[in-house]
Structure formats: C-alpha cells, structure tokens
C-alpha cells in the first residue's frame, strides 16, 4: 500500500469549524458529495444571494434590478480579483470556463505554422479547440512530454519553448481526469523569461488551491465558479493581464459591451477585461459567484488547500488497501481529485451503485483524456473529489462502500446489479 501522506486530523486547526461549514451547506444532509470536481455544493449565502436577486427581478424588473444592485455586481470583480491577486479590471465574467477559454483563443491572431505548446494533460475541450485551430488555420500542436513520476517535464517543455517559439503556451493546472497538480508557476517563469503568451486553465484549482496570477506569470487564465469555488452552474471567468490588454488583444466577436462604436466605420475596444464579456449577464448568477468567492476567502484559501487534498490523500490511501481497486493519480503533487478503476465492474453500473448509496461521484472515460488514460491503459475511472466541508467519516464510509462493491461483500450489490 502506498502512503499518500499523513491523514490524521486533517487541517482542522486552520479551518473555521467544519461542523458550522456543513450547517451552512444544506446538501450535506442529503448526500455524501464527492463530486466537487463536477460541481461543488452551494453554501447557504450563495443560494440566498441568487434567490434574492431573482425575487427582486420578479418584483421590479430585470434591468431595474441590475441597476439597483450595481455595487453588488461590482463585487464579483473585486472578490475574484482578491482571490487570484489581480485588479478588478483584469477580470471578465464568462458563462463557462470553456467559453472563457474559447473567447481568449479567438483573440490570438493565429497564422499557419504557428505553434501551440501544451501538455498531455490539458482539458479535453481545450485539446479539441487546438485541433479545430489546426484544421482551420494550420497551426501546429506540440505536447510537452511527461516526467517519469507523472506531470509535465518542465525542463523539456522549456526546451520546446526555445526550439519552437510558440504563439501560445498553455497548461491545465489540475486536469479533470486525475489528481495531478501541474507546476504552472514553473512553466510561467520560462514563459516570462522568453516573453511567450501563456494561458492557464485553472478550472479545477480555483477554490481548491491558491491561484495567484502574478506568481503564475500567466497572460490569460480561465476558470469556472461552480466547482471547488462552490458557485452556481453556468458561470466562470477569464483573467486578462495588463500586458495583453495593452497589446490590444480582443475577442473575434467583440460586442457593444466590449467596444464603443465610435463612428460608422470604427469601434474602439474598452480598456479593461470587459472587452472579453458580452452585454447580457445572468445577474443572479454573477451575484452568486461574488458570494461564493467571498465565502471562499472567508473560509481561507490556504486552509482549504490544506484540508481538501488531505481528505483526498486519506481516500487514496484507503482505496489503495482495497483489492481490485487501482488508484490512478500520478505526480509529485496531488490535489483533491481521486481517480481509480474497479476490477470486475462496468462504469455506469458502478456509478449507479455508488449513487444508490448516496455517494456522488463522476465517471471519466478514455475520450476525456486520450494521452493520460492511454498511458495508464484504462478505458474509464470513477472520480471522487471531496472538499473541505466533507469529513473524515465520509471518506471512510466511501472507502467502505467501494470495498463492499468491488469485493461483492454481503450487503453489497456486487453480485447482482453491476459486475460483468
Ligand atoms: C480542467 C477543466 N477545464 C475546463 C473545464 C470546462 O469547464 P466548463 O464546463 O465550465 O466549460 C473543466 C470541466 O470539467 C475542467 O475540469
């Protein structure tokens, strides 16, 4: 059995009272929610902010409600800026991390032969977007190799930067398909040294880890609010550096919010990251995101980063001790995502059996991670992603549930509704 780290009394001393945080989270009474990498459970203040705004819209009108809450809406930019260490004017709201990523990509004037340098663990939709750019513009996609212990080999990636002078360097901080944490700040140091455009997908890390855009040295960074940040669905953001704004990057389909139509034949992009937004906003969602960011800051990002990965480490250690379970997370640094395969089970019946035990989880398939799952020689895995409001007892219950299913113990559904 591998020891993933010390897991006794996990980070509790540095967090506000876990019991109080659970009281704040109505979903904790219903389920063991180990799908924070899919969508975190909403905290009560986040839900209240959204419901309150929807009620206001119903009472006085949608445009009038957003005008009445102008200051609170500005709170979205100040809270996200505080969370990732930038100015509010560097933050753009987006409907999803993918939308933020695609909007940012659309601002880069790719030409045939330009190189996009990325890793073998970048998010599926980003990889598809690069392939689409290759199909349309003839860009070249270069994947940096992994180090033997897992995660990208930063020295090899830096050598590729020098050899190719990529038009874009991009990396996913924490992939969707494994617990790996990529060394995005180390990659960033090379990008800054070589003055290369650098975009980071921080979709799984915002709310789970400290994400400091100055330390990472990125030009662009994308995230959702619904995962470890525990904001609402249908939300995300894009960070745009001053460097990129000053250089005049703008999305291909800039609208009347991102630009002023100054004369019939000319528009002028606005100065801030609002250049990357659209005119229409889901204001209740934006206010929910502001509340979620405020909540995370109040809980404390360092304390969260201490506890969530430690709960995951306890889970990995427990699963490693179960015969027939193979944990798949590799890398020098692992986060709060735990992936494993279960001998004798097909994916959907296995997840359904976990659902039946009120344990929320998610499936990942080879299609989500062609390189990573190819290297690991697996076609699917179950993903469990605890967060700081989960408990050690829940971790142990989930390990017991998996053991029960995989070993087909009495009381388990192992022999009836799942295995091949
Ligand atoms: C690493 C990573 N990047 C991007 C995304 C896409 O986020 P969204 O669904 O908000 O577009 C995900 C979603 O799972 C993700 O895990």
Automatic annotation (TrEMBL):
It comes from the Bacteria. One of its GO terms (molecular function) is transaminase activity. Keywords: Aminotransferase, Transferase. SUPFAM superfamilies: PLP-dependent transferases. Residues 34-398 form the Aminotransferase class V domain. This is Aminotransferase class V-fold PLP-dependent enzyme. It comes from Streptosporangium longisporum.
């Amino acid at each position: 059995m591998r020891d993933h780290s010390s897991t006794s009394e996990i980070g509790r001393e540095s967090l506000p009272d876990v019991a109080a945080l659970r009281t704040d989270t109505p979903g904790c009474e219903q389920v063991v929610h180990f799908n924070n990498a899919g969508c975190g459970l909403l905290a009560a203040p986040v839900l209240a902010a959204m419901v309150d705004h929807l009620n206001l819209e119903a009472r006085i009108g949608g445009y009038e409600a957003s005008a009445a809450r102008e200051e609170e809406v500005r709170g979205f930019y100040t809270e996200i800026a505080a969370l990732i260490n930038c100015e509010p004017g560097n933050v753009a709201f987006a409907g999803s991390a993918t939308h933020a990523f695609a909007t940012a990509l659309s601002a880069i004037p790719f030409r045939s032969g330009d190189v996009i340098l990325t890793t073998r663990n970048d998010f599926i939709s980003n990889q598809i977007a690069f392939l689409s750019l290759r199909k349309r513009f003839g860009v070249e996609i270069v994947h940096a190799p992994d180090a033997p212990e897992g995660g990208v080999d930063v020295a090899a990636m830096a050598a590729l930067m020098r050899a190719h002078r990529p038009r874009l360097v991009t990396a996913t901080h924490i992939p969707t398909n494994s617990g790996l944490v990529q060394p995005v700040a180390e990659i960033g140091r090379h990008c800054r040294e070589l003055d290369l455009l650098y975009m980071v997908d921080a979709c799984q890390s915002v709310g789970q880890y400290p994400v400091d855009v100055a330390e990472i040295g990125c030009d662009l960074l994308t995230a959702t609010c619904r995962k470890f940040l525990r904001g609402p669905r249908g939300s995300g953001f894009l960070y745009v550096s001053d460097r990129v704004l000053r250089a005049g990057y703008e999305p291909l389909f800039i609208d009347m919010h991102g630009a002023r139509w100054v004369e019939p034949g000319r528009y002028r992009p606005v100065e801030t990251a609002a250049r990357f937004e659209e005119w229409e906003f889901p204001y209740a969602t934006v206010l929910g995101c502001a509340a979620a960011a405020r909540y995370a800051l109040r809980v404390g990002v360092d304390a969260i980063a201490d506890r969530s990965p430690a709960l995951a480490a306890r889970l990995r250690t427990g699963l490693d001790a179960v015969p027939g379970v193979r944990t798949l997370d590799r890398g020098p640094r692992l986060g709060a995502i735990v992936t494993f395969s279960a001998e004798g089970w097909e994916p959907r019946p296995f997840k359904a059996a976990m659902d039946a035990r009120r344990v929320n989880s998610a499936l990942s398939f080879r299609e989500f991670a062609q390189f990573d799952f190819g290297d690991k020689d697996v076609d699917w895995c179950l993903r469990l992603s605890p967060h700081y409001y989960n408990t050690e007892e829940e971790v142990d219950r989930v390990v017991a549930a998996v053991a029960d299913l995989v070993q087909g113990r009495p009381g388990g559904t192992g022999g009836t509704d799942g295995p091949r």
